[in-house]
Amino acid sequence: MIAQGQALPSATFSLLDEQGMTNPSTEQLFAGKKVVLFAVPGAFTPTCSAKHLPGFIVHQAQFSSKGVDSIICLSVNDAFVMKAWGEHQGAQGITMLADGDASFTKAIGLDKDTAGFGGIRSKRYAMVVDDGVVTQLFVEQDKQFGVSSAEQVLANL
């Protein structure tokens, strides 16, 4: 599993937004920026939709006031699902990023097999990334929510 002080691996993602489909790289998303990246096991799932994503939506201004340049929500879903989920949740200002084949999630060692739920998914986590380097990491235990919440990340900035 990736640890504090380590650089994110090079990866390419899928992003569907108002400009259309793009494939931003790790470097494009994180170089020269302070970014909060949080990951969820699945879009439109109960805890992800009721607690995890909403916390980051509500606290966007506080993150910005603490020097965060962007907030990224990542899931092992496709870009169409991530865009629809973001629109459904009112996540304007949050980058809804797809790791469709889980290659990034596997590369950082935060993947889990949820065979009965959907196959390979991401563990629930949040991290603070400064210029591509993980400075803080908050990984949840299975079926838990709290340490990766927006409030917890804010309290540690």
Describe the structure in brief.
The chain is an alpha/beta fold and about 160 residues long. The protein has helices spanning about 25-30, 45-60, 60-65, 80-90, 105, 150-155; strands spanning about 15, 20, 35-40, 70-75, 95-100, 110-115, 120, 125-130, 135-140.
Report on this structure.
With 157 residues, this protein is an alpha/beta fold. It has one domain: Glutaredoxin. The chain contains 6 helices and 9 strands. It has helices spanning 26-30, 46-58, 60-65, 79-89, 103-107, 150-155, and strands at 15-17, 20-22, 34-40, 70-75, 94-98, 111-114, 119-122, 125-130, 133-139. The chain has a 5-stranded mixed sheet. Helix 4 links the parallel strand 4 and strand 5 (94-98).
Shape annotation: globular
Q: In CATH terms, what is the architecture?
A: 3-Layer(aba) Sandwich
Distance between the termini: 22 Å
Uncertain stretches: none
Tally of extended strands?
9
CATH topology (fold) name: Glutaredoxin
What are the secondary-structure elements, in order, as H or E?
EEHEHHEHEHEEEEH
Q: How big is the Rg?
A: 14 Å
Residue share in helix = 25-40%
Largest sheet: 5 strands, mixed
Reading off the top of the CATH hierarchy, the class is best stated as Alpha Beta
CATH superfamily: Glutaredoxin
Number of domains: 1
As laid out across the biggest beta sheet, the strand order is 5-4-3-8-9
Q: Label the structural class.
A: alpha/beta
Number of helices: 6
Strand content: 25-35%
